[in-house]
Amino acid sequence: MRNKLVAANWKMNGDFSALAAWVAVMKESVPEEGGAQVVFIPPYPYLRAAVDALCRTQIGVGAQDVSAHVSGAFTGEVSAGMLLECGCKYVLVGHSERRSMWSESDEIVAAKFEAATKVGLIPILCVGECLEERELGLTEKVVVGQLNGVLDRVGPTIFGAGVVAYEPIWAIGTGLTATPQQAQEVHGVIRSRLAACDDGLSEKTQILYGGSVKAGNATELFSMPDIDGGLVGGASLDAGEFAKIANAAL
Ligand code: PEP
């Protein structure tokens, strides 16, 4: 039985006072044990404050990106070791915004995934199709292609240290949500691909759904057999709303 996981991706939003207010609400609203694993993913400058503020809770902290390199002349990059030292447990890799705005290829995403696992961070690999690809019937091809882009490079053992997030690009930040059936269909495809590699990998890998998850649609989405929780952007900025989403994943 896989545990549910719900992650709050703040993207490039927030400040120290918003963080303190968010943490206060979450501490009151999320059960100390027995609930879903909750992960808070603020921008880099707030990671350490988040780790300190959440240290006596079950809420973990993650980063939005990581360098594929260990150290050296890579201005602006942050290594997996630095994130770990900061107290992070998770890191997003291959978010669609990074793939599209920073031209991150599957090769780069795989290298970041591997760099994270090497130090013991849990990478959350984001995959998903754009609207045009869905309309052309290419969803499965695109999603499995992105999955293979990492799985074939790092192998099943390293891949098994991570989490997958299916995030249809047409649903990210648009208010459009995949129906639970649409999401389940793609999650099923992802799980079958993992099963073709190794049954154990398929059974243990958490597959999250992301794309305009809100308190109003979370329960239905999270009740689907292959949806193990959510990656939440916009709605995670409102702590009350996000707490309801986290509590829907029981
Ligand atoms: C995201 O950016 O990962 C995301 C799912 O955003 P939103 O919830 O705003 O669609």
TrEMBL record:
It catalyses: D-glyceraldehyde 3-phosphate = dihydroxyacetone phosphate. It comes from the Bacteria. Its main location: cytoplasm. Its EC number is 5.3.1.1. GO terms for cellular component: cytosol. InterPro entries: Aldolase_TIM, TIM_sf, TrioseP_Isoase_bac/euk, Triosephosphate_isomerase, Triosephosphate_isomerase_AS. Pfam families: TIM. GO terms for biological process: gluconeogenesis; glyceraldehyde-3-phosphate biosynthetic process; glycerol catabolic process; glycolytic process. Substrate binds at residues 9-11, 173, 212, 233-234. It is found in: Cytoplasm. It is an enzyme of class 5 (isomerase). The active site is at 95 (electrophile), 167 (proton acceptor). Signal peptide: none annotated. Keywords: Cytoplasm, Gluconeogenesis, Glycolysis, Isomerase. The keyword Protein biosynthesis does not apply. Involved in the gluconeogenesis. Catalyzes stereospecifically the conversion of dihydroxyacetone phosphate (DHAP) to D-glyceraldehyde-3-phosphate (G3P). Homodimer. This is Triosephosphate isomerase. It comes from Plasticicumulans acidivorans.
